[in-house]
Automatic annotation (TrEMBL):
GO molecular function: acetate-CoA ligase activity; ATP binding
Name the record gives this protein: acetate--CoA ligase
Keyword list, A-Z: Acetylation, ATP-binding, Ligase, Nucleotide-binding
Record has Acetylation as a keyword: yes
Protein family (similarity comment): Belongs to the ATP-dependent AMP-binding enzyme family.
Organism, as annotated: Heliobacterium mobile (Heliobacillus mobilis)
Class of this enzyme: ligase
Domain AMP-dependent synthetase/ligase: 60-420
Superkingdom to which the source organism belongs: Bacteria
The encoding gene: acsA
Length: 573
């Protein structure tokens, strides 16, 4: 094998040999692990929660350790089953049924998880949102999905523009708003208190949808990625082999449920394997994070490069105050994991950080570094057994090792998205090359079969692990009265991966000032989300555009990086 390598640690892993698994693996064998294989009755939430209680004797086992700075709570699998049953019953009481979209817009808390699982048990489609979303982002998503209900908190209710959402009938309020409940608002706690904890769960088809997650592309509004119950097959097996979950593990996935990682690997994978999960609410503080690992004896820890880089920049002295010896397995996803961070992980935790690659659209992990395999720092690893990934050119030819091209996945893995909500053309774009899903990322494979990420092919920005579409930010910017036109790019940043940089041209009569700059940043924060606001703004007389009027972000990027601008033949004079 070539290049820098970190050898395997001698633990007893679920996956013993990657090569052997690749040869003998079949998804059909994994299906036999589920109850529905015997009973024919399908619901991912049954397999993830109820089955642990009713069939596996894990009712008194802790499902969730929740904590933030004000609250600490333990939820057993039985409690998780009963409370999610209750919420499913509440939904039924209000006539909300199978296939209807119910959104969740609230900070991390046990109530969020009861609600999420209740929606799925009722056969509904859950739409988790980041609590950071502002009114415009909330409206776009609820409107597109024609959501009938939302679960939220008093602090966030003002960001839900009811008048503009004719389909939205019910707002379940977790907590007591000042001045009481408004029209269409329902007291979540009061309803839960009255609801039965017994439920006739809604049995569904494996191909029935359960999750709608909005994600950004380079053009247009965010698109609704739709996932089905069948994804459980992949969540289960990747949880076993990539997360390497063992029955007695304490597992902490730091991702928010507004992000696919916080659902596929913050709920489904650990619950399907019946392990104990840790959920931490509140803001990020290095001390709190290390203390969480120490106090709860976390063994398996799944986080993201941006978080590791923040921990790294907080300094190694802090780490010495905590006992982190419980950690066995550490993983990362969301952005390129810098080799420097992998080396830091070896130094401070004496553990390898295992990078893996996947997307909202893939629903589950696709490429990974496995614990039983040497790590090459900077590489995403190898495709999951049973999944074929390749580097292909625009015609669909598989490229030889070391050649850069489209990172693509052979169509048809279990957790693949099944639709872009109400937008078949967008869905078909991903499958434009016969037999393949084209990810939009570019990469190459080395001679040992390891994949190396190179960049996005479109202009999507990845800031602290969040995908931000430049078009959405540009559209918001030009809504501001001072801005004539705007072009937005990702600028490389040592902590956040990329930051959002906006180039703008001002309208006649406006002059640039620090006040105007803060006003504009605030405008985007309030209109979209804090993470979508530019951290840098540069004013230009004019922006580079194509003859058809498209802002040429590639030219802006070249300006920013001091690189040659390349072919400018399509640029207006
Ligand atoms: C799970 C998730 C997907 C995009 C993806 C790629 C980037 C994710 C990565 C990575 C380099 C990794 N990405 N993992 N880039 N190395 N290990 O992140 O989903 O939010 O949809 O983002 O993130 O560009 O295409 P999502």
């Amino acid at each position: 094998m070539q290049g820098e390598q970190i050898p395997v640690f001698p633990f007893d892993y679920n996956l013993k040999s990657y090569d052997e698994a690749r040869q003998h693996f079949s998804w059909a064998d994994v299906e036999k692990e589920f109850s529905w294989y015997q009973t024919g009755k399908v619901n991912i939430a049954y397999e993830a929660v109820d089955r642990n209680v009713l069939e596996k004797g894990l009712g008194e086992k802790v499902c969730l350790h929740y904590s933030d700075n004000l609250r600490q709570e333990t939820v057993t699998y039985r409690q998780m089953m009963e409370r999610s049953n209750q919420f499913a019953n509440v939904l039924r009481k209000y006539g909300i049924g199978k296939g209807e979209r119910v959104f969740i817009f609230m900070p991390r808390s046990p109530e969020l998880y009861y609600s999420f699982l209740g929606i799925v048990k009722n056969g509904g489609i859950a739409g988790p949102l980041f609590e950071a979303f502002m009114e415009g982002a909330v409206r776009d998503r609820l409107a597109d999905a024609e959501a009938v209900a939302i679960i939220t908190t008093p602090a966030l209710r003002k960001r839900i523009p009811k008048e503009e959402l004719p389909h939205l009938k019910h707002i379940f309020m977790v907590g007591n708003p000042e001045g009481g409940l408004g029209e269409g608002e329902i007291d979540w706690y009061a309803e839960m208190y009255q609801a039965s904890s017994e439920l006739e769960i809604e049995w569904v088809d494996r191909e029935d949808p359960m999750l709608l997650l909005y994600t950004s592309g380079s053009t247009g509004k965010p698109k609704g990625v739709l996932h089905v119950h069948n994804g459980m097959i992949q969540h289960y097996q990747t949880g076993k082999w990539i997360l390497d979950l063992h029955p007695d593990d304490i597992y902490w996935c730091t991702a928010d449920p507004g992000w696919v990682t916080g659902i596929s690997y913050g709920v489904w994978a650990p619950y399907l394997l019946g392990v104990t999960s840790v959920i931490r609410g509140g803001r990020f503080r290095p001390e709190d994070w290390y203390k969480t690992i120490q106090d709860l004896k976390v063994n398996v820890w799944y986080s993201a490069p941006t978080a590791f880089r923040m921990l790294m920049s907080a300094g190694d002295e802090i780490i010495k105050q905590f006992d982190l010896s419980s950690l066995r397995h550490v993983l990362s996803v969301g952005e390129p994991l810098n080799p420097e961070v992998v080396r830091w992980g070896m130094k401070v935790f004496n553990r390898r950080i295992h990078d893996n690659w996947w997307m909202t659209e893939t629903g589950g992990q696709i490429i990974s570094n496995y614990p039983c395999m040497p790590i090459k720092p900077g590489s995403m690893g190898k495709p999951f057994p049973g999944i074929e990934a390749a580097i292909i050119d625009d015609k669909g030819n598989i490229l030889p090792p070391l050649q850069m091209g489209n990172l693509a996945v052979r169509k048809g893995w279990p957790s693949m998205m099944r639709q872009i909500w109400k937008n078949p053309p967008k869905y078909n774009e991903y499958f434009r090359i016969e037999g393949w899903y084209v990810s939009g990322d570019s990469a190459y494979m080395d001679e040992d079969g390891y994949f190396w990420f190179q960049g996005r092919i479109d202009d999507v920005i990845n800031t602290s692990g969040e995908r931000v579409g430049p078009f959405e930010v540009e559209s918001k910017l030009v809504e501001h009265s001072a801005i004539a036109e705007a072009g937005v790019i990702g600028k490389p940043d040592p902590i956040r991966g990329e930051i959002i940089k906006a180039f703008i041209a001002l309208r006649e009569g406006y002059t640039w000032s620090d006040e105007l700059q803060s006003e504009i940043i605030d405008f985007v924060k309030k209109g979209l989300a804090a993470h979508a606001a530019p951290r840098e703004i540069e004013v230009r007389d004019k922006l580079p555009k194509t003859r058809s009027g498209k802002i040429m972000r590639r030219v802006l990027k070249a300006w920013e990086l001091g690189l040659p601008t390349g072919d400018l033949s399509t640029m207006e004079d």
